[in-house]
Amino acid sequence: MKTLIIIVAILSTGLMAGIFFTWTNAVKPGIGTLDDMTYMKAFQAMNRLILNPLFYIVFILPVLTISISTYMSFGSTKLYVFELFLLSTLLYVLGVFLITILGNIPLNDLLENTDLEKISLTELSDLRGKIENKWNNFNLIRTVSSFISFLLLVICLFFIKN
Which residues are CB-contacts of 141 (< 8 A; sequence separation ≥ 6)? Predict the structure, then answer.
């Protein structure tokens, strides 16, 4: 059971790191080249579609599995295992989970609650200015945090096996 939880932690964290990397590396720069209305409509549509049960499961799974792995490794005689799991947990919870809740979601909500067809071009440009760079910066934090969290979990395997 312990091994299964660690494997699920690694896979789900890696999957989230990949999702965040894709958004940071391709999706946002790609739609960033669009005019304000097209950009905002595309971003609004993607935000609506990503909010689905499968995404929620994969997003929450690392919080649970890394935390459980940390708890199970407490008192481990294997060098650095507990510390690595703890760092991985802290990075994911603070750098991904909390950043999402406190940073990205409020910006997503601001966009979602705006009727893009009813605002002026100036208001549209201002809205994009309020959202785009902040959202991208928060997502970069999530990308780096999830990748390092994933890397720490992989390193844990080497310490556990040796």
Answer: 95, 99, 103
- The pLDDT, as a whole number, for residue 61 is 97
Structure tokens at 113: 């609650």
- 24's tokens: 């940071």
Distance in angstroms (rounded) separating the CA atoms of residues 13 and 150: 6
Q: How many other C-beta atoms lie within 10 A of the C-beta of residue 45?
A: 10
Q: Collapsing DSSP states into helix, strand and coil, what is residue 113?
A: coil
Amino acid identity of 126?
A: D
Do the beta carbons of residue 142 and residue 96 sit within 8 Å? yes
Strand segments (E) across the chain: none
- pTM as predicted: 0.91
Judge contact between 160 and 78, C-beta under 8 A. Answer: yes
